[in-house]
Amino acid sequence: MSLLLGTNIDKLVETNIYGLVARAGGTVDQLVGYKGCRIEDINIPDGGFGKVLQSGKAATPGKSLSVLKRYLKQEFKFLVHGPRIPRDRKTIVLDMHDAHTRPDLHHKYDAAISSNLLEHSPNPIWLLLNFYFITRKTGYQFHAIPHYKYTYDRFRQPTPLEHFIEDFENKTGYSDKTHVEDYRQSAVVKDGWQKRFHETYPLEYPFIHFHVFDEHNCKALLSYVFQEVTADIYKTERFSDNVVICRNSLNPEFAEKYKTFLRDMGEQ
User: Fewer CB near the terminus (10 Å): N or C of the chain?
Assistant: First the structure.
């Protein structure tokens, strides 16, 4: 394991990510050991990493059989590997940007984790607040976000905090086009890694990186919204990610400034 900034984030994750945990963006293998975790996955039907298949939505008997076979494979892997394995039948099919609209999820989870999700959001502060609403107060959030220097975002510039704030205040939504050409030039034209991917998936939400992250703006973004933020760079043969953990407690200045936003989202 290599933490390039030498923080104690690995110990913080081990200590604070436990109990009933909401997971979004697929399996989170960066630092999370899953000891003492009961996982509930929250994902959209297809984020570009494969469809979530559920039996109630299978249109024909043949497709229902395919879903059943998939369930059995997932259950076998779950028995062997534990909660690291996502299971379609246990997945809540929901866009995390809309989690605040589900009262049954409000402050339900002891912790929330994600991998390769925030960069796909046109409005990261809004997305983080949705994680806030599903996580118990004083619980913890952990996010793994690709570091631009080691990905097909390397021809772009990290997004400044001011831009994240503008997107939040302007309620920027899924139809935002302002980053499409920047992303295309870097990921498709110059790097080429996403060229084949975008022969299938359009250059739009949720299939592009709207924003670009390094260790500095990750720390600044989370610190703007939350308290007790620790950020590092997790660099191994498998991963090259920013990793960030924070207490699920709002920064008092943020809470005061945006109390109307928060009240509209359901804050008591």
Answer: C
Domain count, the chain: 1
CA distance 113 to 21: 7
Query: Whole-angstrom Cα distance, residue 25 to residue 94?
Result: 11
Q: Residue 130 maps to which CATH number?
A: 3.40.50
CA dist., res. 23 & res. 118, Å (int): 13
Domain that holds residue 128: 9-52+91-265
Across the 268 residues of the chain, what is the mean pLDDT of every consecutive 10-residue run? Answer: 93 98 95 96 90 77 85 95 93 96 97 98 98 97 98 98 98 97 98 97 97 98 98 96 98 97 88
Helix/strand/coil (H/E/C) assignment for every residue in 142-176: EEEEECHHHCCCCCCCCCCHHHHHHHHHCCCCCCC
Please check whether residue 66 lies inside any domain of the structure: no
Please, are residues 140 and 245 in contact by the beta-carbon 8 Å criterion?
yes
